[in-house]
Amino acid sequence: MESDGEQEAAATPTLGASAGAPSAGRLKGCPELSLEGDMREMAKTAVWSVSSSKPGNGVASLRDDSLDTYWQSDGAQPHLVNIQFQKKVQLQLVVLYVDFKLDESYTPSKISIRAGDGLHNLKEIKTVELSKPVGWVHISLSGTDPRETFIHAFMLQIAVLANHLNGRDTHVRQIKIYGPRLNPVPHQHFHFISRECIMYSSVR
């Protein structure tokens, strides 16, 4: 769980967000990748693509689990990362690693998260602004209704709308997508956590 010192969210909303799309505050980033609740990484088998990239700094750098490499765009804004899933999935959290100290004007300052069945019907879910972030930036996909803890989508798009210091191209070092872990016990509406409970939760 992030402390207030690790991830700062101001009360002022992001300007320019689409109608109906919630906006977060100005995010700083966290040194550690930390998750609340029982979530799993959803995008290991997804198809990833980007709108542009420099040679040697392509889409693979977003998924190599190294903070020393990065995707670098090579074109006009917005810079897009598309994640296409094999089936409709439940998505709860987007986490990006960015580093203003290393990347300066290449660091994103405004990001839009969009979701849908494909490129033809993407809808903006959330817009966030970043303030010189260093570390993991956690972007929740939950809505304003507390019952809306996740979204259903075949496709997720992450759009870098602007960079710090009016930079043109962008650097993003890692992206991870999380959703709720599926219940391992069929026909149960609640979740068992420990291996012992799961082992003895059904008749064999």
From TrEMBL:
Name of the protein in question: Anaphase-promoting complex subunit 10
Family, as annotated: Belongs to the APC10 family.
GO annotation (BP), single: anaphase-promoting complex-dependent catabolic process
Upper classification of the organism: Eukaryota, Viridiplantae, Streptophyta, Embryophyta, Tracheophyta
Keywords annotated in UniProt: Cell cycle, Cell division, Mitosis, Ubl conjugation pathway
InterPro entries for the chain: APC10/Doc1 (IPR016901), APC_su10/DOC_dom (IPR004939), Galactose-bd-like_sf (IPR008979)
Organism field: Triticum aestivum
Disordered: annotated segments: 1-31
Entry function: Component of the anaphase promoting complex/cyclosome (APC/C), a cell cycle-regulated E3 ubiquitin-protein ligase complex that controls progression through mitosis and the G1 phase of the cell cycle.
Start and end residues of each DOC domain: 18-204
Gene Ontology CC annotation, any one: anaphase-promoting complex
Coiled coil: none
